[in-house]
Amino acid sequence: MTTPRQPRPVPRRDVLRYGTAAAAGAAAAPVAAGTAAARARRPARRRVAVLGAGVGGLTAAHELAERGFDVTVYERRTVPGGKARSLYVPHSGTGGRRDLPGEHGHRGVFGFYHNLPDTLRRIPHPGGGTVFDHLTAVHWIELARTGSRLDIPLPVRPLLPALSDPLRLVQSLAGLLQQALRLPPQEAAFFARRAVILFTSCTGRRFGQWEYVGWWDYIQAGRMSTDYQRLLGGGVQLLQALRPANASARTCGQGLEAILYDLLGRGSDGPADRIFDAPTSEAWLEPWAAHLRALGVRFVHGCTVEGLELRSGRITGARARTARGGTARIDADWFVAALPSDRVVRLWDGALRRADPRLAAMDRLQQTWCNGIQYYLRAPAPAVRGHIVHVDSPWKLISIHQSKLWRAGFARTWGDGQVQECVSVDVSDWDTPGILYGRPARECTRAEVAREVWEQMKAHLNDTAGRPVLADTQLHSWYLDEAIAETGHGLANDDPYLLNHTGSWDLRPDAATAVPNLFLAADYVRTYANVDFTSMETANEAGRRAAAAVLAAAGADGARAVPTFRGYEAPEFAAARLVDRDRWRRGLPHLLDT
């Protein structure tokens, strides 16, 4: 096992910019519950320890602080946000400019998100309005190809397929797939039929049948064309950090259905695709942390939780390691574990596993890698102002020239004044050999990963453009996700993602555990509102569910309940789902599954 990389210190000017008093107060706060006098001032059994400052943990803290709980958030890093946080190239800002920013990914806030936008609307922004006001619409998605095949630019705007009945929708989807993706007609029709089967399946069939069928097998990608396999099979890995061979058809179908309704303008909370108009930490996470502090939430950074103490059926405390290598104890009445799945299972000792067997089942959850790399360009590239899906890339790349959509001028705001543009790239496949070195990303050095990703992007963007979209002379520098570290045996990843594989729903716990004062708030928690693959939306919903469970356990007034928002369901398909429910109960296949 490799030693996790220590978080880099926050530059002094950033500490000053984001609130010296708040940062100093959090750093000075003791890891234990505080002095006896402070404890005496707090209402009995209202202290909540949130373990982890990712989106799930911050959401739980937000909801509980608004309802009068005394909340402290413990985080191993020096900044909040978890995987959602922005990354900054250390010491790259000169002349009063900020360090060069980067992201773990493209940070899409999709129209079918409902829980997250509700939170964004409740966070004031220092520049006026709310954080929600700093979302900007992305109007284009480009499917870039290699081998001199024409790229496919797709406008992100409402579609007009017929929803009047399932068969009409099959025809509409088939036509759209054939025209937009240039698939053979028979393959487009087959996929459309398989998609509509998922859309019109009853709940029992979704969880009792499609949860255990892999996406690749469900759409029969193995017998289809290469374009079908890459666009519709591998597309789930490009867009959702899933692996087509073992991602469940239920999870993929759920996401596909949400995207379709989003593009139809059905039940959407705004445009189908949005990003923040500045680096995520600046536009959202720093204002969020400041708002939570104003609500009374305390932050203790540099604190790594290493164990929980279970006595008489309750958590009586948590053991933590401080930034200086010492040990400390965390006291609270309620504990919300908001650590990612690969880390939180390390807290489950034998006593906890016996107290709640569902915690032990989490050992079988799987993780995958989906990490970002940033390229800083000396001149803007003539690329689309939107997401670019590099369809033929073996490493399943999706990129966006993010700074084209940011409000501030890049060169005058970040870096050394030479960088004009930032390109953010998600790398979703770290196990397939690349085109430059012939090795998987896991087996490369950090520098080799940077060169390989650059070459894969050039192969997609420069082959039919008439002039280079990306030129080597443009490249100023790059910055790979700091979670990726070199070891003597390849690369190690300090921030893997939950992988929704077939049957993983059975392994995922609910927010409330069998231990009455222990709750869970991360993207592995079962979520029911809309989609359940790893995303900021599912983490936000998990945090809401954890907060609601704390309120219920504390006997709080029901009028102060924490809401969750359900996804859209097309009323046109209600009758078809009722028919399928009857067929499922009788052991019959879906009516279209013949």
UniProtKB/TrEMBL annotation:
<dbReference type="Pfam" id="PF01593">
    <property type="entry name" value="Amino_oxidase"/>
</dbReference>
<dbReference type="InterPro" id="IPR050464">
    <property type="entry name" value="Zeta_carotene_desat/Oxidored"/>
</dbReference>
<protein>
    <submittedName>
        <fullName>Phytoene dehydrogenase</fullName>
    </submittedName>
</protein>
<dbReference type="GO" id="GO:0016491">
    <property type="term" value="F:oxidoreductase activity"/>
</dbReference>
<dbReference type="InterPro" id="IPR036188">
    <property type="entry name" value="FAD/NAD-bd_sf"/>
</dbReference>
<dbReference type="InterPro" id="IPR002937">
    <property type="entry name" value="Amino_oxidase"/>
</dbReference>
<feature type="domain" description="Amine oxidase">
    <location>
        <begin position="56"/>
        <end position="551"/>
    </location>
</feature>
<dbReference type="InterPro" id="IPR006311">
    <property type="entry name" value="TAT_signal"/>
</dbReference>
